[in-house]
Design goal:
two-stranded antiparallel sheet; globular; 9 helices; binds phosphoenolpyruvate; 264 residues; binds manganese (II) ion; eight-stranded parallel beta sheet; alpha/beta; TIM Barrel
Length: 264
């Protein structure tokens, strides 16, 4: 269902404030985690100022350690929804478990399926039974075909509002970058599938000062949008502080990325 042979024309996902795919370029941004009502509302204003149309934030966090912050749960979803609505933004948030699908759907415009859940087939089928858009992240050890097959699990249940997110993969050298940003996957995926391809330079590189150059590179590679993490006090962020762009750097990044995109 996801192949170009099946559907030659690009999928375009229409949300209240954004179009994702085709010739559209969609900026998505926000904190890694929803930390508090005040914080996410402050960050949402910055997100909007940078020209993004989708607000991100995790309320259920897939942390590597069970002792790390796990998210605010349903309160976090409510804060994120309000922050998005107050700024005329769409919302993306991660759903981690099948029993949460219905509840998360009440709040969000887009389900994020995290890298660690890319092959959670029961979760993929569960979001496939809804009509909520799905942003599917590439697993850290997933091949391009693994990613396309994961998307197929969603589409085969009836939900075709899918976009794919390249967020970096593990390679033999991840000493200086959190993952290896597979830029080549972007044009390859666009040959193989009609789904929109979105770049996540934040998780790909893991260091804030590398985000802007890689966001720019993703535009050149043909990404149809980006999803980036921001924070106004990265040293005290509940998660992923080292890769968060401070507001002024986020605004500089979006300005450059939009200018590059216009120049293509
Ligand atoms: C996130 O978006 O904060 C996240 C956990 O991403 P990933 O699943 O790509 O690691
Ligand atoms: Mn994160």
């Amino acid at each position: 269902l996801g192949s170009r042979q099946f559907q030659p024309e690009d999928t375009v996902i229409e949300l209240p404030h954004s179009k994702i795919g085709g010739n559209n370029f969609t900026m998505m941004a926000g904190p890694c985690s929803v930390e508090s009502e005040e914080h996410v509302k402050r960050m949402a204003k910055v997100v909007k100022e940078g020209g993004a149309t989708v607000l991100r934030g995790g309320a259920f966090k897939p942390r590597t350690s069970p002792y790390s912050f796990q998210g605010l749960g349903e309160d976090g979803l409510r804060f994120l929804r309000e922050a998005a609505d107050e700024n005329d933004l769409d919302m993306i948030t991660e759903v981690m478990d099948v029993p949460h699908v219905e509840m998360v759907a009440k709040y969000t415009d887009i389900f994020q399926i995290g890298a660690r859940n890319m092959q959670n087939f029961s979760l993929l089928k569960a979001v496939g039974k809804t009509n909520v858009a799905v942003g599917l992240k590439r697993g850290m050890s997933a091949t391009i075909d693994d990613l396309l097959n994961a998307a197929e699990y969603i589409a085969s249940e009836g939900n075709h509002n899918i976009f794919l997110i390249e967020r970096g993969i593990r390679t033999f050298d991840n000493k200086y970058t959190r993952n290896t940003f597979d830029l080549g996957a972007i044009p390859v995926l666009q040959k193989l599938t009609h789904y929109p391809i979105i770049a996540d330079p934040s998780h790909a590189v893991g260091e804030w000062d590398l985000v802007q150059p890689m966001a720019a590179a993703a535009v050149a590679a043909g990404a149809q949008g980006e999803i980036v993490e921001i924070h106004d006090d990265p040293e005290h962020a509940f998660s992923d502080g080292p890769q968060a762009l401070k507001p002024k750097n986020y605004l500089r990044m979006t300005k450059e990325v939009f200018a590059l995109r216009d120049a293509l």
